[in-house]
Amino acid sequence: MSSRVSAALWKQLFQLSAQGGMSLQGQIRQMLVSAILDEQLQQGVPIPSSRELADQLGVARNTVVLAYQQLVDEGYLIARERRGYFVNADMLAGRVARAVARVDTAPAAAAPDWQKRYVVRPSRQRNIVKPSDWQKYEFPFIYGQFDPALFPTADWRECCLKALSVMEIRDWAPDLIARDDDTLIQQIRTRVLPRRGVWAGTDEIVLTNGAQQALYLLADLLMSSRTTVGIEDPGYPDARNIFAMRTPRLIGLPVDGGGLPLDARLSQCDYVYVTPSHQCPTTTTMPLDRREALLRRAERDDFVLIEDDYESENNYSGTPNPALKSLDRSNRVIYIGSLSKSFAPGLRLGYVVAPAELVAELRALRRLMVRHPSAFIQRSFALFLSLGHHDALLRRLAHAYSQRAEALADALVRHMPEVSFVPVTGGASCWVRGPEGLDAGRLAQQAEAHGILIEPGDIFFMNGADQLPLHNHFRLGFSSIRVDRIDAGIAALGNLMRGLMTARAS
């Protein structure tokens, strides 16, 4: 390497460090830190002067001066009077030296045979698959992704900044070990659960990294190879996969227009997983009388209900049903909720409401896995709830989703009259049944090639592609697509579906 880093390389490093939302000063600092830690700058050789680097990058000299000064304060650079700025060699002390390439004539040692060592193969399970670049598609009818236009950026930033005050940091920065943020637990008790008719003590709530971890903890704690679990069919694939990791004894319980029916096979179950508020994926709501009957059956046959209160917070029908847990009088319902699903799924914040003795064991098990969810996120969300931002967000989402649901229903009736669908009364998706013989998987593939994302329905069924290779169900999500794009997207999807059906008939 030459004694000086060339102007062209500085510009390249600066471009690589550029991030949306970061100030020029921050980008310069990031560029220099990366160059130092990656050993792209030689020790003992001065880096460009503030004037020189400012000219090379086309920024104000004062911006570079402030960046240099902060890096001096943090120990990355050393300022030497009349000589300039140099890399502080102490920042690289103690690092393992880069390996030197050498020719090794000794035979390579045998690597472990990992195929023989796996106890389970989770990668082989059937999972919902979504493109990582879904935001680039013109018509993203996928579920579970957020809409940047609806994200309360200012409100969330306010709460994060408040959580970064000196006094707040003293509360959340220490290791909570097995505890949760007391303020968030109180907000869940007093602001979130009462909307669902659920009342719980502080020792009956435990926080999780999303509802998904809640299911995993319960499976780990309560299920073995001898446990029989009843699950809705079609139902939530990740719940099915989590339970299958613990027991082969899964019983698929076909759902109807009222969700999970009172099937005779319930009596064989130790646990029954149910999504009564908005059944996954059909979105049907379990009637009140069936909920009460299900609880009576659980008492009679001695099984426990795991209630995933799926999308309950996105109800815009005006007549929300009480949670199954709110009707529970014998502690037979384990209640799972999510705080972040409709807000920002990437925050991963869920919770379990259960008897205190069960919550104590869940905390102990969680401690072995992750100790606790991010305490900073917990405190920020507690502030988000206490300041009323969460309630305001739910109202905005309900309004936006109801508009999108109406636009989607109208578009399906006009552009795809061959299909039937469950009327949407809440949530952010629509379950569609295509004409007999439609291969929804092939439709999804063709649609993706035309900028349209949909979710084939076979993944939600227990046997899926094994027994239903041409299954004609699919799911349309609308949480991340603008209302003015829905009609055109469904029109294009309808044309593709009719093309497939015509080709099949010929």
Structure description:
By secondary structure, the chain is of the alpha/beta class. It folds into three domains: 7-92, Orthogonal Bundle (Arc Repressor Mutant, subunit A); 132-148 and 392-505, Aspartate Aminotransferase, domain 1 (Alpha-Beta Complex); 165-387, Aspartate Aminotransferase, domain 2, CATH 3.40.640.10. It is built from 17 helices and 15 strands. It has helices at 7-17, 24-37, 50-57, 61-73, 114-117, 153-163, 166-172, 182-192, 210-222, 237-244, 288-301, 356-369, 375-386, 389-415, 440-449, 464-467, 483-505, and strands at 77-80, 84-87, 139-140, 205-208, 229-233, 250-254, 271-274, 304-308, 333-338, 350-353, 420-421, 429-433, 452-453, 455-456, 473-477. Helix 8 (182-192) runs parallel beside helix 13 (375-386). It is globular and about 85 Å long. The mean pLDDT is 88.
